[in-house]
Amino acid sequence: MLSQAACGFGGVAAAALLHRDSVRALAGGVPVLHHPAKATSVIFLYMDGGVSQVDSFDPKPRLEQDAGKNPRDIFKVDQTQFNNVGSILPSPWKFQQYGQSGLPVSDLFPHIGSVADELAVIRSMTSEFPEHTNANYFLHTGSGLQGRPSMGAWTTYGLGSENDDLPGYIVVNGGLIPPGGLDNFTNGFLPATFQGSVFKPTVTGLANVSRREASAVVQSAKLEFTRNLDRGFAARLAGGGTAPDALESAIANQELAYRMQTSVPGLLDLSDETEATKRDYGCDSESAPTKTFATECLLARRMVERGVRFVELTCTSVGTDRWDQHGNLREGHAANAKAVDQPIAALIRDLRQRGMLDSTLVVWSGEFGRTPFAQGGDGRDHNPQAFSMWMAGGGVKGGVAVGATDDYGYRVVEKKFQIHDLHATMLHLMGIDHTRLTYRFSGRDMRLTDVHGHVIRDVLA
């Protein structure tokens, strides 16, 4: 039966080309851009665990002045995740002013400081959730509930991919599974074609990409046979209408997987990168976490180069609990920063040198911030009331700090922003009006930003 169904590579390729039109039809969210796009791709640097804003991009000298004091004697302290409120804890790191802008960056990030003139730091971000899983869902999907489409899925739904041979939305996982798991990268109620595809930063970074069949002819026969079965089944289910999304997406994903057998090995093979480039990223580092994240960053550039629409990088294991330092702040934050600092700075420089930064939006963020007072002795608890993140690249004004927190970095006091505003801004820079990117589900036109969100115009170039 397989031999009768076989039509060789030409037949499968022709069938795939014909089907690509229907795949693109699934990406019908924005058939025409709402306004000129500044960026065509996104690289989202996900700092899992909650980076301390007062130890990274929001200097607070008052913490030093009031070190050791009871915060309840100074300001109102809300209940925290563990409610183990210690004394005011100054940052172990000094801040330096970098570049022509003089943007303050802590000594945790000397390499990122070297590209400070490219960064728009937002010091007044807030979250609605003090716990990792729900805060991660909120950061990624705009909802604290499980199962909503992620920002990467929404972006590729709206814009599709510029490369038919790679997924439009790729997550490069450095080894740690974030709280909430794969639901942070799900397509939710959007067509399954737009779910995140998870890669690892290795030469064999994608499971089952190699052909298992005895020959290419046998494989092409199997593909054509199963495609004909699926198409016939879809036609019967459609009854003259539209086939179910699950089936259409399964066909599209199967054909994409076939094409990825050719495209992925070259993508993951870094042998064509110069030794100087790999050294700049830190691919030769003696630190295994730095080496892993360096590979992630270099792969992100290569993916964007090949037309991948949305790339997210997750943290690698450094022997501590991500950025989630409830204790041992100095060692934990230092280890996490060492893993990402050099690679991220190299990514920014590399994109700039290749003329890609102006069309690539780079976003650095965690799910919330941390308290300016100690949790117990030498850690910091979760703080959704204020955190810092930054953007760089396509359409972003570099060398600026937007918003402000109080003297202790505990609450936002100027230009308060929420996750919906971040999502609205990202979509805006991609040429999408966030209020017009909708998908009909359960009788309602759903949005990434729900009924909220305003573009953060202070960061626009």
Instruction: List the secondary-structure elements in sequence, H or E.
Output: HHEHEEEHEHHEEHHHHEHEEEEEEEEHEE
Outline type? globular
Low-confidence stretches: 1-26
Helix content: 25-40%
CATH architecture of the largest domain: 3-Layer(aba) Sandwich
CATH class of the largest domain: Alpha Beta
Rg from alpha-carbon coordinates = 23 Å
| Mean pLDDT metric | 90
Specify the number of helices: 12
Write the layout of secondary structure elements.
Elements: H1 2-5, H2 8-26, E1 41-46, H3 62-65, E2 85-88, E3 95-98, E4 103-106, H4 110-113, E5 119-126, H5 132-141, H6 151-159, E6 169-172, E7 197-199, H7 216-238, H8 245-268, H9 275-281, H10 288-305, E8 310-313, H11 329-353, E9 360-365, E10 369-375, E11 379-383, E12 387-393, E13 400-402, E14 404-405, E15 412-414, E16 417-418, H12 419-429, E17 439-441, E18 444-446
Helix pairs in contact: 2-7, 2-8, 7-8, 10-11
Characterise the protein shown here:
The protein has 461 residues and is of the alpha/beta class. It has 2 domains: 1-31 and 209-268, no CATH class; 33-203 and 273-459, Alkaline Phosphatase, subunit A. 34% of the residues lie in helices and 17% in strands. Strands 1, 5, 6, 7, 8, 9, 12, 13 and 16 form a 9-stranded mixed β-sheet that branches. Strands 2-10-11 form a 3-stranded antiparallel β-sheet, with no helix packed on it. A hairpin with a 3-residue loop joins strand 10 (369-375) and strand 11 (379-383). The longest helix is centred in the last third of the chain and has 25 residues, at 329-353. The chain is globular and about 75 Å long. The N and C termini lie far apart (60 Å).
